[in-house]
Automatic annotation (TrEMBL):
Residues 22-107 form the Quinolinate phosphoribosyl transferase N-terminal domain. Involved in the catabolism of quinolinic acid (QA). GO terms for biological process: NAD+ biosynthetic process; quinolinate catabolic process. This is Probable nicotinate-nucleotide pyrophosphorylase [carboxylating]. One of its GO terms (molecular function) is nicotinate-nucleotide diphosphorylase (carboxylating) activity. InterPro entries: Aldolase_TIM (IPR013785), NadC (IPR004393), NadC/ModD (IPR027277), Nicotinate_pribotase-like_C (IPR036068), Quinolinate_PRibosylTase_N_sf (IPR037128), Quinolinate_PRibosylTrfase_C (IPR002638), Quinolinate_PRibosylTrfase_N (IPR022412).
């Protein structure tokens, strides 16, 4: 992970929250007071983001120490103490909300990803994320998918070509779109084509492509598409996939399933921060 970028995200989040100063904490807590507090899981889930919350508090108090009580990616039960932060009381109180916002969201993503990965045990099919991420938080959300056992799709528009219906319409045809893109990007960049009918799959297979996204197909059509492709290119199913349908879709033989809601509609894992010692002067 690009930790320079992560630190920038943390600084922007802290600047947004603190503004001209933490009025409440600055009024109540004298400088020099130190405390320790526990991060507690209030529901079962997969923990992701421990290295990130460490950086939150170090940004406010370089002498702060985060002791991890579980491993990154570990599944925990309700009530589990997952980490202890020790340091400036002011820094702990001021950084609390940003730290919780990040670890709650990242752990929520890791939790649902792990659940989906388990549903596909025994199959070669991977669980993929998409670019449907929170603006500014993509690096953290895609990291959380990996912690949960999933696989990252492209990080951005520069990390691969995906030809969708609007691109094809602009080019005039799928074959023309592939021709123009291949000339532009060269042989080192992979090209994926979106197809939502078997006829489009047949056309795509005649072109210089690397992957086909089978979009919003029912299970029977997916099976036929996979048979048509017969391993010639990498396959991905997407569109309308739910935890209830993901196994059946994966059993069609596709190489991966991609789910935008892994990141854009995830429910944060409930995690709290409770002080365990009284404030004391240094």
């Amino acid at each position: 992970m690009n930790w320079i970028q992560v630190k920038r995200i943390i600084r922007e989040a802290l600047n947004e929250d603190i503004g001209a100063g933490d009025l409440t904490t600055d009024a109540l807590v004298p400088e020099g007071h130190r405390s320790s507090a526990l991060f507690l899981a209030k529901q079962p889930g997969v923990i992701a983001g421990l290295p990130v919350i460490r950086l939150v508090f170090q940004e406010l108090d370089p002498a702060s120490e985060l002791t991890c009580l579980v491993q990154e990616g570990e599944e925990v039960e309700k009530g589990t103490a997952i980490a202890r932060i020790t340091g400036s009381t002011r820094a702990i109180l001021t950084g609390e909300r940003v730290a919780l916002n990040l670890i709650q969201r990242m752990s929520g993503i890791a939790t649902i990803t792990r659940q989906l990965v388990k549903k596909l045990e025994g199959l070669h099919c991977r669980v993929l994320d998409t670019r449907k991420t929170t603006p500014g938080l993509r690096i953290l959300e895609k990291y959380a998918v990996r912690v949960g056992g999933g696989t990252n799709h492209r990080f951005g528009l520069s990390h691969g070509v995906m030809l969708k219906d609007n691109h094809i319409a602009m080019a005039g045809s799928l074959s023309r779109a592939v021709e123009l893109v291949r000339k532009h990007v060269g042989h080192m960049v992979q090209i994926e084509v979106e197809a939502d009918t078997l006829e489009q799959v047949k056309e795509a297979l005649t072109l210089d492509i690397d992957a086909i996204l089978l979009d919003n197909m029912d299970v029977e059509t997916l099976k036929q598409a996979v048979q048509l492709i017969n391993g010639k290119v990498w396959t991905e199913a997407s569109g309308g996939i739910t935890p209830e349908t993901v196994r059946e879709i994966a059993e069609t033989g596709v190489d991966a399933v991609s789910l935008g809601w892994l990141t854009h509609s995830v429910k944060a894992l409930d995690i709290g921060l409770d002080f365990e010692t009284e404030m004391r002067d240094t």
